[in-house]
């Protein structure tokens, strides 16, 4: 009965992991930021591979805006487009020259995001990249009093470090081009399955080691009993167990906890959680090493 319950729990954890991983786009849902017609996109992560003088170099990650059209999800279908600097840099006033369907690189600030996007669209840009003034990404939303939300070009925010690199290259008259696409998350994320298999594999290996050690100890004990030597009596009183007895409930509990930790690590990706996990694994590794040494020395 315990085994059946354990299998059911493990299958449930696996199903929940797949459910969390099958969210379509790499989406960040936000119920706080204002949402209305023309400004109701989900905040999706956007990949921005770059080419310098025709040679592919770095790939940056941005975030899509609440407004504008959705981006292409396939890299092979994304347009390979040249990037130009905005003039004026903030695009809060009419540009000094029109563009030829390039991607315009704009500084954040001095006016709303939708104002920048509308000006970029008027200047015949194919997309707008907005450089944040911090290393983090910021959610681009619409102001409450804005009405001109019929924006037909995508808007993507880049972190400050990525935007600065592109800006410096453009100021040196280097040809820079990019692709903008927001990849879909696969129905079954291979990374999550691999992490889950690591947890299951760990408990299986531990169980095998425990069973093998117990068998060796039993054979040795049986041999000593058959010899009927006095050493057997002393061994019975002083011998310490060199294996860990793991029952079904403990094994299932370990798999469930390990699966939850790995899923949380994959989903949260936060620095503090990684630090906690490293400490826990170090403690577990020391305990495991101690157990192995005791078993070998015994």
From TrEMBL:
Per UniProt, subcellular location reads as:
Endosome membrane
Which residue ranges run through the membrane?
Answer: 193-211, 246-266, 272-297
What is the topology of this protein in the membrane according to its UniProt annotation?
Answer: Multi-pass membrane protein
Q: Does the keyword Chaperone apply?
A: no
- Sorted UniProt keywords: Endosome, Glycoprotein, Hydrolase, Membrane, Protease, Signal, Transmembrane, Transmembrane helix
A GO term for molecular function: aspartic endopeptidase activity, intramembrane cleaving
Highest taxon in the source lineage: Eukaryota
Biological process, per Gene Ontology: membrane protein proteolysis
Q: Does the keyword Hydrolase apply?
A: yes
Domain PA residues, every copy: 83-164
Q: Which GO terms describe its cellular component?
A: cytoplasmic side of endoplasmic reticulum membrane; endosome membrane; Golgi-associated vesicle membrane; lumenal side of endoplasmic reticulum membrane; lysosomal membrane
Query: Where is the secretion signal located?
Result: 1-23
| Gene3D superfamilies (alphabetical) | 3.50.30.30
Instruction: Please name the InterPro entries in this protein's record.
Output: PA_dom_sf (IPR046450), PA_domain (IPR003137), Peptidase_A22B_SPP (IPR007369)
Q: What's the stated role of this polypeptide? A: Intramembrane-cleaving aspartic protease (I-CLiP) that cleaves type II membrane signal peptides in the hydrophobic plane of the membrane.
**Protein family membership:** Belongs to the peptidase A22B family.
Protein name in UniProt = PA domain-containing protein
């Amino acid at each position: 009965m315990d085994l059946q319950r354990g299998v059911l729990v493990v299958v449930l954890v696996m199903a929940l992991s797949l459910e969390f991983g099958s969210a379509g786009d790499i989406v960040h849902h936000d119920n706080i930021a204002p949402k209305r017609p023309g400004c109701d996109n989900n905040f999706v992560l956007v990949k921005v591979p770059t080419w310098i003088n025709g040679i592919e170099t770095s790939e940056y990650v941005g975030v899509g805006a609440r407004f504008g059209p959705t981006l292409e999800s396939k890299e092979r279908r994304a347009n390979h487009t040249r990037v130009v600097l905005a003039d004026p840099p903030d695009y809060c006033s009419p540009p000094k020259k029109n563009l030829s369907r390039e991607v315009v690189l704009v500084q954040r600030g001095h006016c709303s995001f939708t104002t920048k996007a509308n000006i970029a669209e008027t200047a015949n840009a194919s997309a707008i990249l907005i450089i944040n003034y911090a290393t983090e990404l910021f959610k681009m939303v619409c102001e409450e009093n804005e009405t001109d939300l019929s924006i037909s070009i995508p808007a993507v925010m880049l972190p400050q470090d990525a935007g600065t690199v592109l800006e410096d290259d453009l100021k040196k008259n280097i040809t820079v081009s990019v692709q903008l696409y927001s990849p879909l998350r696969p129905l079954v994320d291979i990374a999550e399955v691999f992490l889950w298999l690591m947890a299951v594999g760990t408990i299986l290996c531990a169980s095998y080691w425990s069973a093998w050690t117990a068998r060796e100890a039993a054979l040795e004990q049986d041999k000593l009993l058959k010899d009927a030597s006095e050493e057997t009596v002393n061994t019975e009183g002083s011998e310490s167990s060199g294996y860990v007895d793991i029952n079904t409930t403990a094994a299932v509990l370990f798999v469930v906890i390990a699966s939850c930790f790995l899923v949380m690590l994959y989903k949260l990706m936060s620095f503090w959680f990684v630090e906690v996990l490293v400490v826990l694994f170090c403690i577990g590794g020391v305990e495991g090493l101690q157990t192995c040494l005791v078993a070998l020395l015994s």
